[in-house]
Structure formats: C-alpha cells, structure tokens
Design goal:
- The chain has a seven-stranded mixed sheet, sandwiched between helices.
- The chain contains ten helices and seven strands.
- 47% of the residues lie in helices and 13% in strands.
- Helix 1 crosses helix 2, helix 3 packs across helix 4 and helix 8 runs parallel beside helix 9.
- It is an alpha/beta fold.
- It folds into two domains: 166 residues, 3-Layer(aba) Sandwich (Rossmann fold), CATH 3.40.50; 83 residues, no CATH class.
Length: 267
C-alpha cells in the first residue's frame, strides 16, 4: 500500500477538541529499534528448545505471541518466556534474567546506530518515521499537550528521544520504570484523567502497537494507528494496518508526511 491516511471509523471525529496526544515511541516515531522482533524471536526459541531445532508449532507460537504482544512492556514478554521455558525445559530463570539478555542482544545494533548519530555520521532523520518531527511541531503549535509513553526502559527512551531531537516537544516522557512491571502507557492515560482532568474526547492516542490503541479506546480516546514500515520509514505496513484496525483504530496512517490531512481530520 502507498502512503495513505485512511479513515476507518467515520463517526469518530475529534472536531478540534483534542487537548492532549499520547505517542508511542518505537515504530511510531523512532526506528532505532527496528528489527527487535528478529532479536526476540530467535532468543525465545533458543531458550524454549535448547540444543535442538524448534518444531514448526513452537516457531509459530512464538511468532504469534510476539505479534500479539507488540507494544507492551518488555518484561511482560519475558515473563511469558520464563513461564513457557520452565514448562518445556524444567529450567527456571525469572523475567528480569531474560530481559537483561534480550536487551544485551538488541542494544548491540542500537548502539551502532546511536553512535553514528552522535558522531555525525548519520542524521537523526534517518531513524525517524517520515513527517513525524513536523507533525509534532504542528501539534505543539496548536497548543496540544504531548506525552510520550513507551514499553522500553525509561532511561533509554529519554536518551533516544533526545538523540533524535524530539524530546523537547513532550510535556512528559514516560518509559518502563526500572525493575518494575508497570504499564507506562496506561499510567500516562490514568494520569491525564485523574490529575489533568482531560476527558476521553479530548485525548488522541497514536501508536503502531495494538496495546496503546486498545488502551486508548478503552479510555474513550480517539486512536490514530501508525501502520508504519520501519525499514522504509514511509508507507503502510499491511500487517500492522490489520492489527491496528482489529485493535480499534479510528484512522490509519503509514507515516506523518501528509500532516495537513491528519490535522484536517482532527479539526
């Protein structure tokens, strides 16, 4: 599919009343962690089928779980691995053990990208979804409060947002708290209701994972599904599109290059 903005729920019209927007980070704004599934999948299979080739049923189960769990805090995914590994192999490691090993493997590639930006060998735009920075600027100019909520560790999200030049747009950045299994995305939404006193009709949730989209709809917010192609950084990923529609996205976009069209929908 081409780069499109697609209205799924024609009855969901913000009418210019949006006062706050909650963004996911990885895959929605940043592509620094593009390919994380290719790290997590093999690692899970390695622990679930030690010393031998995993059978097709196990491969399919792991693939299905990763797809279904996209967007949740990493430690919850590792909790699934911990329970599954103990059941299949009799070996127990807690979720934090697996999370540490997953992060070690993932960060090997992420650190190379970050170092390239820090040394000026790569431009931050090479690792952001097309139009994302301009979209953030436009929302900020409209006086909309912006929040960043991610299942990635808080310290990493903050550093990577700064590295990509987007940290300054956000009123608050909230990643996974250190050594705590808490959903940062739900925490931000709860805070916006309880402390900021926003109503659901004043909130917009934007993300490429079904977790944040489903949460947004649960709280009565408008939901913009970012069906991003993280490798190309533009255009629609049809797998994500289907996942986000099922989760309840009101509208779908492949990237943010047609900012004016998204803003017209919001108004």
């Amino acid at each position: 599919m081409d780069n499109v903005f697609e209205i799924i729920n024609g009855k969901a019209l913000p009418g210019g009343k949006i006062k706050a927007a909650v963004f996911d980070f990885d895959g929605t704004i940043s592509t620094l962690r593009c390919g994380w599934e290719k790290v997590m999948g093999p690692m899970m299979l390695e622990y679930l089928s030690p010393g031998k080739e995993p059978d097709k049923a196990l491969i399919d189960e792991v693939s299905r779980y990763i797809d279904e769990s996209t967007g949740i805090q990493t430690v919850y995914q590792m909790q699934w691995l911990s329970e599954k590994a103990e059941k299949l192999t009799g070996v127990f490691h807690d979720a934090w053990y697996y999370k540490d090993e997953y992060n070690r493997r993932l960060m090997e590639s992420v650190e190379i990208k970050k170092e390239a930006i820090e040394k000026g060998k790569s431009d931050p735009s090479e690792y952001t979804i097309a139009g994302a920075v301009d979209f953030l600027k436009e929302l900020k100019n409209k006086g909309i409060a912006l929040y960043l909520a991610s299942g990635t560790d808080h310290c990493d999200v903050k550093l990577e947002a700064e590295l990509l030049g987007v940290a300054g747009f956000f009123d608050e950045i909230c990643g996974a708290p250190e050594r705590k299994a808490l959903c940062s995305k739900e925490a931000v939404l709860k805070k916006l209701f309880s402390e900021k006193h926003f109503s659901g009709r004043e909130l917009l949730v934007i993300g490429d994972g079904k977790v944040e989209i489903a949460l947004g709809k649960q709280y009565g917010a408008f939901a913009l599904g970012a069906a991003t192609d993280e490798e190309k950084r533009c255009g629609v990923n049809p797998v994500k599109r289907n996942r986000l529609i099922i989760a309840g996205a009101d509208v779908i976009t492949g990237d943010f290059s047609d900012t004016n069209r998204i803003l017209r929908w919001m108004d």
